[in-house]
Amino acid sequence: MKLPIVHHPAYTADIPENHRFPMRKYAELAQWLKQTDPDGALYDFHEPEPISRKDLLRVHAKDYVDQVLSCNVPHAIAREIGFPMTQSVSFRAQCATGGSLLTAMLALEHGVACNTAGGSHHARIAQGAGFCVFNDVAVAVRAVQAMRMARRVLIIDLDVHQGDGTADIFAHDTSVFTLSLHSEKNYPVRKKASTLDVPLIDGMEDDEYLEILEDTLKQVLNTFKADLVFFNAGVDPHHDDRLGRLALSDEGLRKREELVFKLVRNEGLPLAGVLGGGYSYNLRLLVNRHSNLYQVAAKYL
């Protein structure tokens, strides 16, 4: 069986050339995956539809949704997001969110699926923030719940930054378990309470990180019985990431992916992977780190 991978050309939005967000990584990652699978034996690519307004309104405030869809976001909010709110950026957010919904549906059908974008976990109910326009995972969770495809969902967020938006959206919902392992002193300054937060000290390396992750994830899987698992596989815990404060190696990140997939799939749970953060200057090395998610996922169908 081939790994379902969700990708849309619009994931690479038009932003200023000197912008600090590595927008080119989405196209480069898809190209890398296709080049390493020239016969199409490993990966099955799917192009998502843009998310519907109805799906967005299950999570986000009407005024904010309409501001993004009309590209009329107030300057202060656009500044907090970090992108110029153009048609290209708006459409990217719609496609990436639709992509995470399709990824969830494919994971429920095949056991595993991955998006080549997603993980916009700083987007809150009333606005976006931190390079996140819509909270794609939250929107996808609400959509599959509405379709009665899954009732209880576990979100494993291993991006180096705390998933404050996701935590806030599901703060009073016992059907969704939000787990966040993140750098304690990193963005955001004002964190929101996840179901379980595991703040990590600056400079933490592979062995300690993996031990904490394994103990924590085993505990969560034993106590919360999920129908679907989302995995935010941000690679910004890497030691040379310019927005992270942890010190994982390339090998440590790969072992992290292996650990998550092994523990989740051993429970027989469908797993939907999203890309998450990664901000190294070297685009080739950044794409290689992100590629671990798909290489590992393909082994757990």
TrEMBL record:
InterPro entries: HDAC_classIV, HDACs, His_deacetylse_dom, His_deacetylse_dom_sf, Ureohydrolase_dom_sf
Pfam entry (one): Hist_deacetyl
Superkingdom: Bacteria
Keywords: Hydrolase
Domain named Histone deacetylase: residues: 19-281
CDD domains with a match to the protein in the record: HDAC_classIV
Entry's family note: Belongs to the histone deacetylase family.
Protein's UniProt name: Acetoin utilization deacetylase AcuC
Source species of the chain: Pseudovibrio ascidiaceicola
